C-alpha cells in the first residue's frame, strides 16, 4: 500500500476515536488511504506499507469455531474482574459483548514494582474463587496468541520472556 504507517502513527493519538469528523478529515488530507479502490483479499496475506513494514496479517479461518468459542468462554469468566478493574479514561466504546477494563494475570507483577520482593504472590486478579477455572480456559487461546506473536513480532515475543 502506498501509505507510510510510521508517519501516520506519529500523527494520531489514543484520543483519536474516529468520532471527530473535523479531525478525521485533517488526517485523511495528511495521510490519504493510499490505494486505488477496494481490493478483496480471499487468501492469507501480509499487507505492507510503502516502506515494506507489515501493517496487517490476514489469516482467514486461523481460529476455528471451537477456538473462538473458547475465547468467548474465557471472556465470560473474565468479565466480572474486568468490570471491577481500572478503566483507562472512560472512552471505551460501549459494546454489550465485551467488558472494558484492565487486569494483570502475571505472577508477582505487583511486587516487581515495589521494594518488598521477598514474598512474591499471585496476582490479585487470580486470587478469586474462579481463578483455576480461568487459567484452564485461557491456556489454549493464550498459547495460540503467543505462537502468533513469536511469528509476527519476534522481538516483542523475546522481550516478554
Explain what the structure shows.
The model has no long low-confidence stretch (mean pLDDT 80). A two-stranded antiparallel sheet has the order 1-2. The chain has helices spanning 5-11, 21-30, 65-84, 109-112, 131-152, 154-159, and strands spanning 45-48, 54-58. Helix 3 packs across helix 5. It is mainly alpha-helical and 161 residues long. It has six helices and two strands, in the order H-H-E-E-H-H-H-H.
List the helices and strands and how they pair.
Layout: H1 5-11, H2 21-30, E1 45-48, E2 54-58, H3 65-84, H4 109-112, H5 131-152, H6 154-159
Antiparallel strand pairs: 1-2
Helix pairs in contact: 3-5
Key features?
161 residues; mainly alpha; two-stranded antiparallel ribbon; 2 strands
Radius of gyration: 20 Å
Class based on secondary structure composition and strand pairing: mainly alpha
Q: SSE string, helix = H, strand = E? A: HHEEHHHH
Question: How are the strands ordered across the major sheet?
Answer: 1-2
Largest sheet: 2 strands, antiparallel
The coarse overall form would be globular
Mean model confidence by pLDDT: 80
- As residue ranges, the low-confidence spans are none
